[in-house]
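Structure ticket #2291
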Amino acid sequence: MTASVDIGHVTLTYRGVSEGVLALQDTSLSVRRGEFAAVVGPSGCGKSSLMKLVTGLIPPDCGDIVIFGDKVCGPVKIAGMAFQNPNLLPWRKVIDNVLLPLEIVKPHRQKFRQHKEQYRAQANALLNTVGLDGFAERYPWELSGGMQQRASLCRALIHQPALLMLDEPFAALDAFTREELWCVLRDLWHRIGFTVILVTHDLREAAFLADSIHVMSARPGHIVMTKIVDLPRPRELDICFEPRFTDIVHELRAKIAQVRKA
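Resolution: structure written out below.
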């Protein structure tokens, strides 16, 4: 299967007033088209830096990043992004927050006014899919944290990106809401079929959602292990209590403990 994301021998240094900080060193990673990949590792290992490189928000010192055959040389327009903080604009209603990428991203922004009602229908359909039926005209501050994160997912997907980048999107939520949103994301991915790279500290989250899990070393970060998750799909939450699931989580935890000490 053709690779959606191909990261080849990338090195990244953050340069400040004093000496620079080497965040990533000779990091390589490949994600197939339509694959759900997760990246885990100890704090400060460069997981979020990897996200910024893939989306073109920062350039590497050396190495190449290729997305769908095109080398990344600037911000990537075919990617949707969601983060730990939903970052919804409080003065815009939920549906207008969801529509925001269409007002900004080419080619949608050129025809946004002309096709606004069509886009609003698409946004409403997406909100209904994630359980926010009836909340389109509310403001973000009228929603719970979990509901805001659902709206954030809709905003990331409204322009139908081929690649969805998720940086700890559920970390700030309670355990019950987090697991509920795992299932929402699982169902969206099954239905639409986009490629996903999920950065997370939650090893259960990675094992439940991903096809492959890439473990990073301590800083300077690089991939030290790739675990293929051979659990059958679709996965229900009950699988989290099965020995084959917990074995994967324990293997990941042991590897991360090992690289933290190295």
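Closing remark: The first helix runs from residue 47 to 54.
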